[in-house]
From TrEMBL:
This is Glucosamine--fructose-6-phosphate aminotransferase. It comes from Chimaeribacter coloradensis. Keywords: Aminotransferase, Repeat, Transferase. One of its GO terms (biological process) is fructose 6-phosphate metabolic process. It comes from the Bacteria. InterPro entries: GlmS/AgaS_SIS (IPR035466), GlmS/FrlB_SIS (IPR035490), SIS_dom (IPR001347), SIS_dom_sf (IPR046348). The lineage of its organism: Bacteria, Pseudomonadati, Pseudomonadota, Gammaproteobacteria, Enterobacterales.
Amino acid sequence: MNATMLTYIYGTPDALAKIVREYPENLLPLKNALAGKPVKRMMLLATGSSYNAALCARSYFEETFGILVDLKEPDYFTYYERIDPATSLVLAISQSGKSASTLAAMQKVQAAGLPVFCLTADPASAAAQAADGVLDLNTGIEQVGFVTRGFSATVLNLLLIALLIAESQGTVSRAAAAAERDALHTLAAALPTVIEKSEAFIRQHRAAWLAASRYVAIGYGALLGVAKEAETKLTETVRLPASGVELEAYMHGPYLEANRSHLLFFIEHQKNTRLRALRDYMRPYVSEVFTMTLESDEPAENTLSLGIPSNHPFSTLQLIVPFQLLSFHLAALRGVDLNIRIFDDFDQVLKSKV
Ligand SMILES: O=P(O)(O)OC[C@H]1O[C@](O)(CO)[C@@H](O)[C@@H]1O
């Protein structure tokens, strides 16, 4: 039987557990390159889901370990930006290793005399071949284009890369690093429960998902990455308008489009009074508001309480799960057959993938 999105979502807990177990051996090329070389500023190049994954992990580099990160959309970087001279590490992220814009950006970096590492699920891909060092996502290639396991594996690998850099430059003690790794292992082990709770929640609210004509996901900090990935996944599969917006940014324009057929998701890792104030304000103006949270303080009908506390960047690995599942199930409910390829000649005509 052919693998579906669901196969990969259900396979994610084991895949993530393996990545944590095989850390840091799986990141050896980076570990070797880091020896004695501090990283104060690095650049990440990624597009689509890989960009969203980087949004999830960025605060773990910057806020937790003080490693400054320039996250760049490759095409914009290639044509309109310059490399910060303080940059000492460049990482291109491409799950397929086929994104043409990411490849072009890598070439620009290399032409400037800087080496580029590539984080990819396919070490034989064009991006991996072009890179100066390859970091394997350690999952194997995902056969379904609407990536889910690959997204979560990218987030996790980036978190571990941040940890590796912090360890190698002594920003974090050995004991503290081991505790972070243990926390990630515990998190991977808890993901089957997250899947189970999410499935039940999706079944319970089937009528609400179907009634909406537009979906908006709102998050803050690392959870902007979850909101943007919710946008990407819902757009790719459900094929209705969807967007992912940063909490404060939503208050500067986007709220004005709200109407009675819009469904709003509010994503928090722990009680966020600002987010809840916006949710409560918007409730009467839209079809439904839903809260996805790790808190268990508010057992309400429209709240998915995952109830497994974890730190802010790590929580992205849990909070993305309901959106991945919803994208799959809602597509089916709406009669979209994800096995039928659409825009089949797109890459051939537009050459966005090599
Ligand atoms: O990580 P990659 O393989 O470069 O892909 C980036 C994006 O391209 C797509 O495959 C298609 O645009 C998205 O699904 C994905 O998010």
